[in-house]
Amino acid sequence: MRTFGVEEELLLVDAATLEPLPAGEWAVSLRDRTTGTGHRLTTELQREQIEVDCPPRTTLAGQLAAIRAGRALAAEVAAGVGAQVAALPTAPGPVTPHLASAPRAQWVRDHFGLTAREQLTCGFHVHVAVGSREEGVAVLDRIRVWLPVLLGLSANSPFWQGTDTGFASYRYQAWGRWPTAGPIDVLGSADAYDRHRRDLLASGVPLDDGMLYFDARLCEHHPTVEVRVADVCLDAGHAAVIAALTRALVETAARAWRAGDAAPARRASVLRAWMWQASHTGVGGDLVSPATGTLVPAADVVAEFLGVVGPVLSEYGEEPGVSAVVEDILRHGSGARAQREAFRRHGDVADVVAMAIEATHRAPGTPPGTPEGF
Fold first, then answer.
1. Most distant CA pair in the chain, distance
2. Is residue 257 part of a domain?
3. Given Cys at both, which of 94, 100, 203, 206 links 211, Cβ 3.0 to 4.6 Å?
């Protein structure tokens, strides 16, 4: 079984006002960045963020435990600066972000202007182990058409600067302003991937390989494929299932490559439209079916996806748990729906943040307002 690990970017908010608090650097400095559990706390582009890097795991249950432990650790350091953390991909209310003090962040600000200054977004990145760069690129070529499903299931960012954007994942729209963000074409080999990477870096537009913001990429520091499309999820159980689906997709793609199956030949420009649709409606409307290239009900595309990765999920013993959570998302909606419902109660984005804080640390599957427990 391939190991898989996640990175969660969390929003830091003032414990009293529930407004974004630019204290991420201060909070992280209060303790060592590594822990006995293998978690690592880091800063991000904006001071209103904390990133939690979770250790690799081999099981869905282990992944869920790692995510919950990481969120608890982030809450602990946040409390030291009078803050709380929330699994919110965008701040629901008006905010003027504060860039981190690191020289790299200042370079990004000077080079990218308003795009950098406004970029307060929190994603959910899944790393899945691969045996080689060649296998990694083969995986990237074959998972592209299914990444909109992962975005749709995770969609959790309908608000931006106090406004309902009409999108289920506005984070993906805001993130798409970076020049290297989004889908890439089928490359076919590690050499072709490396040439693509070198050409982008030679242009001088991205600062370094860390700014190659593809929807999925090879990690330059670990032997993994990094899938970067998902919103950070309110529910830790949803997050763990997105990670498990990602691992199953990677394993399925690797097996297809070894069997000699060709990668789906969809251009990046076409996939960009598919991703836009997933960002717009999440699983509350239509998604593009990879089988037909046309819009069909999201539940049907999700069923197609589960049909593709189902054999691996069954082999890993994860199919029942994953299917139950996916069914729950389809029935009750992702985080975007929960945020809108919280806002409708009083028309106050503070209610959205309060709901998100509770949901971030609630036991998976527990209805809001009930005691913690499975």
1. 57
2. yes
3. 206
DSSP string covering 308-330, please? Answer: HHHHHHHHTT-HHHHHHHHHHHH
Q: Is residue 15 part of a domain?
A: yes
226 burial class (0-12, 13-18, 19+ CB within 10 angstroms)?
buried
C-alpha–C-alpha distance, residues 299 and 305, integer Å:
10
- Residue 370 in domain: no
Q: Total domain count for the chain?
A: 1
| CA 146 – CA 234 distance, rounded (Å) | 22
pLDDT per residue as tens digits for the range 169-181: 999 999 999 999 9
| Cβ-based neighbours of 68, under 8 Å, separated by 6 or more | 236
Interatomic CA distance for residues 134 and 142, integer angstroms: 13
367 in any annotated domain:
no
Give the range of the structural domain holding residue 219, as residue numbers without chain letter: 4-361
Condensed to tens digits (0 to 9), the pLDDT of residues 281-306 reads 999 999 999 999 999 999 999 999 99
For 80, the token pair is 């030291």
**Spatial separation of the C-alpha atoms in residues 371 and 197, rounded to whole Å:** 49
Residue 193, H or E segment: helix 190-202
Regions of the chain where pLDDT drops below 70: 32-35, 365-374
Interior/surface letters 84-121, b for 16+ CB within 10 angstroms, e for the rest: bbbbbbbbbbebebbbbeeeebeebbeebeeebebbbb
CA dihedral 316, 318, 319, 325 (to 10 degrees): -160
Which backbone phi and psi does 317 adopt, to 5 degrees?
A: 75, 20
| Number of CB atoms found within 10 A of residue 263's CB | 20
Is residue 100 a contact partner of residue 24, using CB atoms and an 8 Å limit? Answer: yes
